[in-house]
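can u do me a favor
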């Protein structure tokens, strides 16, 4: 059994900054600089399944969104056909077993 977590690179704030040409490593954030790879919910799940694990549980953890960001998130959700829960999530947590 393995429990793992990773920052969610599909988070709205990362996308917002990329659209404005920003990719800065900041301590204690999604882009903390200590990560060698970045994942979305789909690619994190695929990593474990490809490695022979069965996903027991997958959770998206959110830590709040500024009220002014919701309009951007809703528009982004429609544009990229993604659910708002994934765009808001800062972290992806997986429980998997071989």
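np, heres the sequence
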């Amino acid at each position: 059994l393995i429990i793992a977590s990773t920052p969610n690179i599909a988070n709205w704030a990362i996308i917002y900054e990329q659209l404005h040409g920003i990719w800065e490593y900041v301590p204690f954030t999604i882009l903390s600089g200590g990560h060698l790879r970045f994942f979305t919910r789909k690619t994190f799940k695929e990593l474990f399944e490809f490695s022979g694990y069965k996903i027991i549980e997958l959770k998206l953890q959110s830590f709040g969104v500024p009220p002014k960001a919701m309009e951007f998130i809703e528009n982004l959700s429609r544009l990229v056909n993604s659910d708002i829960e994934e765009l808001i999530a800062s972290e992806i947590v997986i429980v998997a077993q071989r």
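Helices lie at 12-19, 41-50, 69-80, 84-88. hope that helps!!
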